[in-house]
Structure formats: C-alpha cells, structure tokens
Amino acid sequence: MTVTEPKTSGGVIGTRMLRKEDPSLLTGESKFSDDLVIPGALYIALLRATVAHARIVSIDTSAAKSSAGVVAVYTYDDLKDDWAGPMPCAWPVTADMKNPAHFPLANGKVNYVGDGVAVVVANSKTAAIDAIEAIEVEYEELTPVLDLEDSVSDSTVIHQDLATNSSYLWELIPNKDAVDEAFSNAVHTVEERYIQQRLIPAAMEPRSLVVVPAPFGGDFTVYTSTQIPHILKVMLALTLGISETKIRVIAPSVGGGFGSKLNVYAEEVLALAIARKLRKPIRWTEERTENALATIHGRGQVQDIELAADANGKITAVRVNILADMGAYLQLVTPGVPLLGAFLYHGVYDIPNYSFSCTGVFTNKTPTDAYRGAGRPEATYAIERAVDALARKMGVSAIELRRRNFIPKEAFPYPSAAGLTFDSGDYAANLDKALSILDIEPILAEKQARIDAGSTKVLGVGLSFFVEMCGLAPSRVLASLNYGAGGWEAATVRILPTSKVQVVTGTAPHGQGHETSWSMIVADKLGISPDDIEVLHSDTAIAPYGMDTYGSRSLSVGGSAIHLATEKVLDKARAIAAHQLEVSADDLEYSNGTFAVKGSPEKAYPLAAAAFEAFTAHNLPDGMEPNLEASVTWDPPNFTFPYGSHFAVVEVDTETGKVELVRYLAVDDCGNRINPLIIEGQIHGGLVQGIAQALYEEASYDAAGNLLTSTLADYLVPSATEFPFFELDHTVTPSPTNPLGVKGIGEAGAIASPPAIINAIIDALSHLGVSHIDMPASPQRVWETINNAGK
Amino acid sequence: MEVTMIINGSSVTRDVEPRTLLVHFIRDQVGLTGTNVGCDTSSCGACTVHVNGESVKSCTMLAVQADGAEIKTIEGMASPSGELHPLQRAFQENHGLQCGYCTPGMVMAASSFLAENPHPTEQEVRHGLEGNLCRCTGYHNIVKSVLAAANETAEV
Ligand code: FES
Ligand code: FES
C-alpha cells in the first residue's frame, strides 16, 4: 500500500474541526472530581511511610482518634476483613511470576516511601490531615534495595516470602542458535548499555475521588479521576467482594493521565471500603507530593543491547537483556510494561535474528506501571541509539545506515522475527519527506563551521525513526501474553426520534477530544452535522461495556467500533426506507441524510423519517424491532504500527553543558487522519514529554530511598520557555487492519523524541570524543561528559 | 474573620478561617470551581486568577489578604450571554487545550500578560507563561493561541 490521500467520504473526516469539549473547559464549567459538591462527605487522608524499607513495630492512633473532627482511624488490622482480595495485578506475565501480597494499607512492613500505613476519616480535609500528624509509628528499619543490579543479586530480599527480588524472567528468543551464529559471523558489532530513568507522569490534575453510597440500597457511585472506569468497576467488585451490579463508576472531567490513571489505586479501594463501613460519602484528593510518591512512576530499566552487522552494515541480529524496575509491588499492569516493547527492539529494520529477555525486579521505590508509550519508548530508544552507535563505528551516515536496513515497503504485511505482523508502511518515503523539509546540508555546514571556528556553541543533528505497536489489542494476542482482559471496544449508535444521534462509547477520554472525533466519524458516515451528535462515555451506567483509554487504542479500536455501529444502524434505516418506498434496500443510495432510489432521486426518504418511524413503529417491516439503534463490539485482528522520522537539531554550550533545542521536525504516519488539529496536539504533547525525559526529568532517590523530586519545584516538568515551535508533517499509509485505516497517535511523540534528542547531543559532541550520554542530559551531566571525554 | 471581595463583578462576603488560602475560598466557599489546584509549591499556575487586575497564583495568598479586592476568575471571562472572551476563543481555535486542567490558569495568566504586553513575540509569550505548567499540549498551541489573541486585539 502506498501513500494515499486521507479518506474524506462525507467531508467531515480529515477536517480541522474545533473541539466540542472546549467551551465548558474554557469557562470553568466542566467538573473535575474535586469540583463535585457532595453534601455530608467525609474526607480521608493517608499516613504514608517515611522510610523506604522497614518493619512496623507499632502504630499508635489514639491521639489521632481523639483529634478534632476525626470520625475514625484505621490501620491494616482494622480493615483486613474488608477486602475480598489483594490489590489487583491483571498481567501475570509468566506462570511462575512472583507477586507479593499488596493491600491498601501496609501489613506489618512498609516497602517504599509513600506506602500507606494508616487512614484517617474526618469531617474536613484539614482535620484529616491534622490527625495524620498525630499518629505515631515506630519502625525497625531494614536495608533499602534501590539499585536494580543490587536487587537482582538478592543480597537483601524485600518480600521474604517470595525468597527473591526477581518477579519474573520473560524471554522471546525464537532461535537462540541463529542469533549466536549471527554474532559470531558479524563483521561489525556494537554492545551498549542504556539507562531508562524513572519518570513521574505528573498529570496536572492530581488523582481525586468521591465514593457516594446510596443510604439504603447498598449501591455505590464512585466518581474518580481515572482512565479506566470499566476495568476499575470490575476490579473494585473483585477486590471488595461487592456485586458488580452495585458499583457505578463515573470518570468526570479527567485532567490528563498518560497512563498514571490506568490503575486501581489503594485510595480507591480504601474509600469504597470505608464508605461501605460508615455509609457516608468519602472523598479524597491527592496532594502533589502524594502524586509523586504514591501514583505510579514510569520507565526504570537498565537495557543491554547488542547488534550484529555484516560488512555493509546490514544488521543481522539484535540481542537485548533488560532489567526492569517493578518498584515495591505489582500494580495493575506493572509486569507487562516491558513486554509492550519486547517485540520492537528491531525497530523499523529488517533484522532476521532476534533475542529479548527481561527480568522484572522489585525495589523499595514507588511501583512503576504504564507511562505514555509504556515499553515502546524504551525499545525505540535502545534500537535508535544502537543504530547510531553502529553508524559511528562503521563511519557511515546514520541516515544511510538506516536506509540500508529499513523493512522495504514491498515486505508489508511484514512478519517480524519477533513474531508480529507489521500492518503497512513506507519508511523510505517518510524519511525522504522529512529530509526534504529538514534541508540538512546547511545545518551540517554550519555545524562544521562552528567547530572550525572553535565555537563553544556546537550544533548536532539527531534522527530517530520509530515504529510502535498500538491499538491494544487483539484479544487472542493478549491471551498469548497472559493479559487478564480482552482488547475489544464497544459502541452503540442511536438515532433518536427527533433524528439527533447518541453515540455511546467504551473509551474514556481525558484530554484526547473523543467527543469531537467520534462525532466526526458518525457525522461523516451519516452526512449530518457533528453538532447533532452527542457522545456519552465514562459512566458505567450509561456505557456499560468498555475497555477504556490507553495504548493509543481509542481511535483504532473504539473509533472502528463506532464506525461499524453507524453502518449497522444505517442498514436498519435503509430497510425502513425501502419498506416505505416499496423498493428493495439494494436499490437505495444514501447521502446527506436521505435515501433515494438509484436513478430516480425524486423517490426519496429521509433518515429523520426512518428515525421517527422506528420510534412510532406504526409501519415497520415484518419482524423488525422498533427503535433505531445498533451496537458493535469490535476486536481488532492486529495491532496497528504507526511510524515516522523525527529530527532534532540542538545547540550545546560546551562551557555550561546547556542544551538548547533549535529545531524539532516530526514527520509521522498514523494512517488515515480523522482530525489533524487533534493529531497535531497529541504529537506536540508527546514530544514535550519525551524531550523532557531526554533533558530534564528524573525521579531521583537518595541513598536511604527518599524521593528527592516529590514536588513540582524539584521535579522538572518543563515550561513553555524550553521549546521552539515544532515542525510537523506527515505521510499517510492506511492501516489495512481496521475499517477506518487509522493507526493511533497518542504516544508517538513520547516514543520517538528521546533518542532523537540524545543522538543530536552526541552528534554535537562527537568531535570531542563523546559517544555516550545518559538521560536526562542535564547541563551538569553534559558538562561532565564533555570533560571526561577522551580521558 | 469576615472578608468581602468583588468576585467577577458581584460582591461576596463570607466568614473565613485565617489560614484559608484564596484558592480554597474561591473554590470551596464561593463555589467557583473553574480555578484549579495542581500543586502545593506555587509551581504550576493552575490556580491563577486576577486580583485587582494582576494575575496572582491564588494558592500563594490568604483569603484575608484579598479582603476588599476585586477578583476575576475564569468564570468571569466570557460575557454574561455566554460569548467567549477573545482569548478563550483563541484557545479553542488553536487547540490550546486538551484535558483543560491547566487552562483556566493559562487563560488568566495570558490575559494579564497581554494587558501588559499587547504585541508580544513568541519568546515573550513563552516567558510570560513560564509560571504555568501544562502536561498535555507541549505549549505549542497555547503559545499560538496567545499570539493569535494578541493579533486579533491588534486588528480591532
Ligand atoms: S496550585 Fe497554585 S501554583 Fe500550583
Ligand atoms: S491541557 Fe492538560 S494540563 Fe494543559
């Protein structure tokens, strides 16, 4: 499949429609969880461990209990009969994976700074927080395990009952002998070690929730800032032994997630347990410091990657060994995050021999889990840096070396050595487009001129060509990976009696603009105005089925379900129209809200009439059910594989180590484009998160296991001053695996940008003998790297 | 303690505890929840409002310190008939928001910035918004929105 124009059948898809979500968000009308007014609500606050690894000798809550406004104080022992099971991990990646018991409050031992020790219930937030300070805990401190290689050595075992710090070993080695042989026959090899530092997702809206019990019926409404209302409902039911029919989860406006709200958190379980106990609404909103300590972190890997290549630089094998930091416990999908990258360490290159293994290890740190890209940024970083390293070693251009290794466009659908089938792509065309926009020659000339002049402001150009697998996911593939759920998505499309349209989706947006894009998909198909379409979501009573929003899945899976449900509802309307016009349905064509007999356009029947007819049911075809509604649950046959070339141009001040981003060009291919405005916004946001990983952000700990970056004053979420305007362009290679031909774009920027930036920095400094730098490339680290080079 | 403020044009009098922050007064006591809280170190700007025409992070000020002041929050930006303020319109037209959590603070900060510097350059906009964090947009479209609003005002 080659580059084609975007699909614009009904004239709506492909347009830069402004977002429906915006007016209420721009005027302060939208309600986030903490904005909800719930009369009579009690507030909870958690006492959190202040030490990373310790046995709890005693907890004295007596002073807290008598503190003003306090209703109750609970520890693990007080609540141990309130849960039906431990905190859920839905991804047991291997049959013998070790999963420590994990409850909402610590049972006799704390395992990271931030671990919940006790909970106070009080009639105001300040009363709850004040009482927390009155709780006394005596700890017997244990050696904290902080470093991944220390952890794997088991010199101190965190969870004694597991007898080891290794949770699992997961391998993908289709043919070990062939890999070994490729390495022994290789003319060129590289062997690199990269560190994926821990990151704090830092959504701007802290997590927040209110649980409202019905006073008599035993039902609970859980309002929570989550990406996964549907999964959360099931998990809350299982964890607390409450019938699923008695829990309704609503995600009101959600202020960003990036994976951090793709989880089941202790506070959600605690609040529901306490609401059940006290029959009172319970609310909680996290402080920013709690967000840093007790909301999941991302990344955290040590990556060893080796490439084997022949004399021409054709890569013949890739071998990867990963140590992945699980943190103290396994959260919802913690162990699976490295697996989402495990298949992609060959990148966009046709590499026949593949070996990947990953050991997941526990540390006395905040649990990790999915953060924007989840596994795929790690994979992309490793291969894209290793390819640059190989190019440097061989003395060929990094661009040329990539071209020699691209999966050729004729090879699609491409069966990869790791066992996937890449859907579609034309990598060379995408790179050509990026190069034509970049105009690299003048940059390289300027770079050389500055070196020649002995300038302290040197230039570098870095390329990252990424591919990701997204659109999670074919349920059967998830089954083969031991994932505890399916990857389908549900949609219902209703044409109401007045011909307005209701779309019910199982996706759960938190900034992605689904109300807009889903309206466009339906409007395009029905030929009606997007303003006549309402999108309902994120409430399990209104949208009972859904697999929620993560992994760039919402459009390719959820959008496809909506597209198919719209076709289905249109078929029903067509049957009504045919009945009314006394013709065969096959004789009708549909456009802009009207069915007309082919060849005699005067014989027409509007969709609105069919909707009203379906409602009155006065004269429907025999056997047809009233109402105009259709539901589709769609399970994709494959992942989608967006890709693109990203170029960074940086200026490095060799005296201060400061890196300035001069240009950033991203040419992405996300298949057909529904709303370019939203696509660009997703890329911009992802880029800044990825660039921030490369240059600024790191969750750092001291030797005792205290998080040093627990506020936004210490954790360097960048501001607007650090970036230029980004240059974006695109190619379009539709995905053949879904009816919209789309691929997904939510994670692309965060996946592609870190290696582009680091490759650019190394390029800028290579004449000084620099061939490696870890992230974040802070001024100090860059300065030290320059000064240590060649020593 | 009793405090009186003019909030979005209406006089509001309430009893407050001395330690109540202006942002909590606005959200919890006046019920204007458009102003958000994103941190506890005055780093994020989600809580930005106007106090006597100047943009202020309302988590850095006590309610009692604002006694007698004129306050404007995001709820006071659109006209009473619901017509968006030019900056709000520019944010929509340029996709300057995604989740919308930082947006009220961004709009308030941007509007006082533009009042002081009606014809800013891109760099001036970036520096003018330095105290406001956004995790979604990568700032690109926020900066574009502010520049577009500046141009629009310039044309009027
Ligand atoms: S809440 Fe005021 S600056 Fe963050
Ligand atoms: S739009 Fe989400 S934080 Fe700015």
UniProtKB/TrEMBL annotation, chain A:
Its EC number is 1.2.99.2. Pfam families: Ald_Xan_dh_C, MoCoBD_1, MoCoBD_2. InterPro entries: Ald_Oxase/Xan_DH_a/b, Ald_Oxase/Xan_DH_a/b_sf, Ald_Oxase/xanthine_DH-like, AldOxase/xan_DH_MoCoBD1, AldOxase/xan_DH_MoCoBD2, AldOxase/xan_DH_Mopterin-bd_sf. One of its GO terms (molecular function) is oxidoreductase activity. Residues 27-143 form the Aldehyde oxidase/xanthine dehydrogenase a/b hammerhead domain. The keyword Transferase does not apply. This is Carbon monoxide dehydrogenase large chain. It comes from Acidithrix ferrooxidans.
UniProtKB/TrEMBL annotation, chain B:
The keyword Metal-binding applies. Pfam families: Fer2, Fer2_2. Residues 1-77 form the 2Fe-2S ferredoxin-type domain. Its EC number is 1.2.99.2. Pathway: Alkaloid degradation; nicotine degradation. It comes from the Bacteria. The keyword Iron applies. Keywords: 2Fe-2S, Iron, Iron-sulfur, Metal-binding, Oxidoreductase. InterPro entries: 2Fe-2S-bd, 2Fe-2S-bd_dom_sf, 2Fe-2S_ferredoxin-like_sf, 2Fe-2S_ferredoxin-type, Beta-grasp_dom_sf, Diverse_Oxidoreductases. One of its GO terms (molecular function) is metal ion binding. It is an enzyme of class 1 (oxidoreductase). PANTHER family: OXIDOREDUCTASE WITH IRON-SULFUR SUBUNIT (PTHR44379:SF5). This is Carbon monoxide dehydrogenase small chain. It comes from Acidithrix ferrooxidans. The gene is coxS.
